[in-house]
Predict the structure.
Amino acid sequence: MITVRVKDVLQNPAYIKHINAVYHDVECLMYDNNHPEIFVQENESWVHLLQGLHKNGFFSNKIELLDIGTGTGFVIDRFLPFIKKEDTINFLDISNKMLDLCKIKYSKEQFSTNYLQSDCSTIDVPSASIDIATINSVLHHLPNTHELLTELHRVVKPGGYIIIKHEPNLNFYSNILLRTLYKKLIFLRTSRNKIKHFFSSKQSTVPDHFYDQVVYKITNELKLDIVDLTPQKLSSIVDIQSPTAGGGLQRRGFDPLQLVNSYFMPTDYKLVSLSTYNYYAKISETSSTLLYYLAKFFRKQFPNDAYFFDVMVQKHENCN
């Protein structure tokens, strides 16, 4: 048994990856319910994106898809209307439990499947074999995004696509107005919840079994005793690059343009689309009429500064 503190874990990429694997093993059966911001808010944009590829004839040929951080199959489910029996889908995740769930879920489908357990430092597929690679809500879990983005360049074939979605935008934090408004909204929501809890006749006394299960696996499987671990600090480990992980708002995330210019240079890739969305982080823009119209104003004034971003690039046909 190794005794460490959270600050030691945050400086050790191997610890972060192992804890992410344990965390998502425990979360697999409740993941869909825990992340409505993905399953509700992301659905429309994925449908629109894939319909665009369909109109361009992308799905008319045999394709091989790589879904990184596949989880419970959210992205794959959006692809299903376009997937043919001759196609191949590669499911990649750090969690064996997530992959086991997908094996059952897609066992009756006719297309070919491969299930790859990986921490994203390496991808066990041949070079230039992937027609389209998808990364949905994954980068912010990685202590080293360079490993994955370098591997992507290797495995995607010339003419193939890379789609990165639902990642935190560093420009949101840099925008003082948006950052301040978000903090005010979180304060108001937290205060309202505390008042509701105080007056509720059904105040919860149920312990956090999810957190307890994760801690148990960290202790017994990883042989790590993290002496100052709390639910908030666990979040800061699992979502290492997220500005809201662990509570509050910190300067974390990715600059979309910098990411594109560093890994998808114009000599090798065409930038198909880059957009930012949701000006209140995980608080829905439609949660009130005021927030809805304010978000419309922000889209005109700060088109590059919303909390999340999407990027889609296409590898040039002559790129090795």
